[in-house]
Amino acid sequence: MVHTPSLQHRLPNEGAHIHAPWRSETAKQAIAQSEALCRAKGARLTPIRRRVLEVLLASPKPLGAYDLVDRLGSQGRRMAPITVYRALDFLIEHGLAHRLASRNAYLASSDVSTGRQTTAFLICESCGEATEITSPAVADTVLKVLKEQGYQPRARALEITGRCAGCQDIH
Amino acid sequence: MVHTPSLQHRLPNEGAHIHAPWRSETAKQAIAQSEALCRAKGARLTPIRRRVLEVLLASPKPLGAYDLVDRLGSQGRRMAPITVYRALDFLIEHGLAHRLASRNAYLASSDVSTGRQTTAFLICESCGEATEITSPAVADTVLKVLKEQGYQPRARALEITGRCAGCQDIH
DNA sequence: CCCAAATATGTAGTGATATAACCTATACGA
DNA sequence: TCGTATAGGTTATATCACTACATATTTGGG
Ligand SMILES: [Zn+2]
Ligand SMILES: [Zn+2]
Ligand SMILES: [Zn+2]
Ligand SMILES: [Zn+2]
């Protein structure tokens, strides 16, 4: 059992190395879209919720709830975990963010407009980067399998693990 | 936020209702297979590990680590969580059990012989029952998507959520 | 505008899940 | 049998998520 990967969550940014650059314009656009969507639905994107979303959007990797707590404190004031969880609850409910169960981590939706359809996440088990994709092939296959087994499908996120291009050979 | 499903783990057997019966012969067979497989690999299926596997096999639903702790105590003696986690670690590493990240729960492999290939679990979000399937269609699709995105595939378990046949309409 | 209801946040404590660190016991091979 | 590797015991702790209740803010009706 020399190299058994641990069962539990690994913080996404311990010894982090990033392969993809990050653009802030994308984040601004996403915020604007999110605001529009919330207005349309009568949902309240309050300052706290908005800030949580901004921090998620500003991160190239999924963040743990307590990572968010750390990043959201202002002038020595630490935000209570429950506050972050409540904001995440809201964001997830409205399709603005997702939870990665396999990592106990959260990330912003890459495309708000798709709403709560079946999406998939490719998660690099080396660097923790997550790519959200909406693949009809995956959705169809999953739907077929569910139907075959008599399961009624519920729109959910699929987590697929692999090793991203940047992490190949190198590690 | 009236009916937001909680983010955290729900014990798999709280208010449990079971739709499928359970047969103990299958469990005995699985134990025999597991023993054979461990002998062949030089892995040691010790009494503790074997008991954990037996308890998993005896459960129609995935069990939390602390459920296992509760079920494994004998004559007032409570097994330490770490002991259970170590046993689970072993079982998972050798393909005898799986972890369902979306539920923080563990279950025995339905077919030991398939080893650590890409399998999928259909998880009922109502009753918690999990069905392990090995669908070439799913495996192929996942592989293709990974390749498209430059990901190197790593054999892992896919967790697909839905509502099982028994739970339809009823709830 | 004022008030009542609904919604959102603050605060404190706790529950639930998983592991670290260190030590002892047992199994295995030479 | 002896040395090493592996497994398990014990204690404490890290990590993740939520309950319960009080307070503040928003919102819509009168
Ligand atoms: Zn990577
Ligand atoms: Zn890398
Ligand atoms: Zn069900
Ligand atoms: Zn049911």
Automatic annotation (TrEMBL), chains A, B:
Native source species: Microvirga aerilata
GO cellular component, one term: cytosol
Family, as annotated: Belongs to the Fur family.
Parts of the chain that traverse the membrane: none
Protein name: Transcriptional repressor
SUPFAM superfamilies: Winged helix' DNA-binding domain
Cofactor dependence: Zn(2+)
Classification of source organism: Bacteria, Pseudomonadati, Pseudomonadota, Alphaproteobacteria, Hyphomicrobiales
A Pfam family: FUR
Superkingdom field: Bacteria
Residue sites binding Zn(2+) per the record: C124, C127, C164, C167
